[in-house]
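Retry 2 of 3 after timeout on previous attempt. Resubmitting structure tokens to design endpoint.
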């Protein structure tokens, strides 16, 4: 490889293994990489790991993620970030079994993982298992009371504000919310965002237009039936999730209402299995699972390289995905 590139072995090593190194000129670095690509050469990560006393392996410990539609984006983001930095990710899934989780963490330790991403299916508060003590660990879609642990979660308040702003821009002032009955951060954050958006535009909230429901299609259907059957009913509904929004679609159909002519509906999740399949397509706010997975891996690798890096608790903004479920209110 060095002979083909016309440089020293040391230069090859720096060019291929240290993308930010100032020890090799940019043009030389690019030349070496071009030669490596033409030769089909790949660096020996095992040898590199032995020199650095690292396994080049990260663990991703999840609860139920691998059995849900969210798995692909979150895990893909983690794996992409790991691959770009010469690592692989071992994914284990406990299925909410604490004993199994402990065995999985022990197995990861036996494989001498360099760090762990501790991930949850949805934004929630957790306590880190004692078995992770001493291992660089970052929380994904979860928070803890320990300020020394870095974490990333969706910005729930921002997500709700984004959803409600879409309805207000369309001209709605009678906006109902179907919120979750569960005591979790998303429930409280989305309610706060709902009120924030109304307040920002001087819209008075009618307490009758807030209904608490089970976060399932059936819960959304029952709640929407109650809201849309009221006198002076809402002209638009902000739903806790896409599953709840699907129930709201069913309620509107049962009442002979057309979406978005008679009622506009917005959800949160961008669960494409639902949002793309509904007719018209559901306008919703996407939870940034891919970006959260990438951030978590990059952060744990930064901690491995620089253990004194101050911890971060990050809340990631959530983009609006516009489809066909929002229109102006009927005059």
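Retry 2 succeeded. Sequence:
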């Amino acid at each position: 490889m060095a002979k083909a590139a016309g440089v020293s072995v040391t230069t090859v090593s720096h060019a291929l293994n240290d993308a930010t190194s100032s020890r090799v000129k940019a043009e030389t670095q690019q030349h070496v990489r071009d030669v490596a690509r033409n030769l089909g050469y790949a660096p020996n990560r095992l040898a590199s790991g032995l020199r650095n006393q690292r396994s080049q392996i990260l663990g991703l410990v999840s609860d139920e993620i691998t059995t849900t539609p969210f798995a692909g984006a979150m895990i893909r983001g983690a794996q992409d970030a790991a691959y770009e930095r010469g690592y692989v990710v071992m994914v284990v899934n406990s299925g909410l079994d604490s004993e199994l989780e402990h065995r999985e963490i022990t197995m990861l330790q036996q494989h001498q993982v360099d760090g762990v991403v501790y991930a949850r299916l949805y934004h929630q508060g957790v306590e880190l298992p004692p078995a992770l003590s001493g291992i660089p660990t970052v929380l994904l879609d979860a928070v803890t009371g320990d300020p020394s642990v870095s974490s990333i979660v969706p910005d729930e308040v921002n997500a709700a504000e984004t959803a409600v702003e879409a309805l207000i821009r369309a001209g709605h002032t009678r906006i109902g919310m179907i919120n979750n009955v569960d005591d979790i951060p998303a429930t409280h954050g989305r309610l706060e965002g709902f009120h924030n958006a109304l307040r920002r535009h001087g819209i008075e909230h009618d307490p009758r237009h807030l209904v608490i429901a089970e976060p399932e299609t059936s819960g959304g259907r029952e709640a929407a039936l109650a809201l849309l059957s009221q006198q002076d009913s809402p002209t638009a509904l902000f739903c806790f999730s896409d599953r709840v929004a699907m129930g709201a679609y069913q309620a509107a159909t049962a009442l002979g209402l057309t979406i978005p002519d008679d009622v506009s509906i917005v959800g949160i999740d961008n669960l494409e299995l639902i949002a793309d399949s509904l007719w018209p397509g559901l306008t919703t706010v996407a939870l940034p699972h891919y970006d959260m997975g990438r951030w978590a891996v990059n952060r744990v690798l930064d901690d491995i390289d620089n253990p004194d890096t101050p911890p971060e608790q990050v809340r990631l903004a959530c983009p609006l995905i516009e489809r066909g479920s929002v229109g102006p209110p009927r005059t």
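Attempt log closed. Confidence is low (pLDDT under 50) at residues 44-51.
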